Amino acid sequence: MGPTATSSSFLSLRQFILRREALCLYRQFLRVSRDAGGAREREEMRRWVRGEFDKWRHTTDEGTVRLLLTQGRQSLNDIKTSIEMTK
């Protein structure tokens, strides 16, 4: 018989929703990176995004996660604006 799951191994509904929002934001960053200058700039942006998401991957405090999502959305909007200005 395999190991059993404990109640602490499951995400709460709030955690599940925040996780979904974080993954959505990550994908948005990757989509925007396609328009970021040349190949070098695109790769640099992807590495930066991956590093930031990895750095905060194990954060479980809902307040902190919400703050990070807000900061991430603002950064995404700033990057989009910057890319649009260079076109």
From TrEMBL:
Keyword set, alphabetical order: Mitochondrion, Transit peptide
Domain Complex 1 LYR protein: 20-77
GO cellular component, one term: mitochondrion
InterPro entries cross-referenced by the UniProt entry: Complex1_LYR_dom, Complex1_LYR_LYRM2
Family: Belongs to the complex I LYR family.
PANTHER family (UniProt xref): LYR MOTIF-CONTAINING PROTEIN 2
The protein's role, per its UniProt record: Involved in efficient integration of the N-module into mitochondrial respiratory chain complex I.
Name of the molecule in the record: LYR motif-containing protein 2
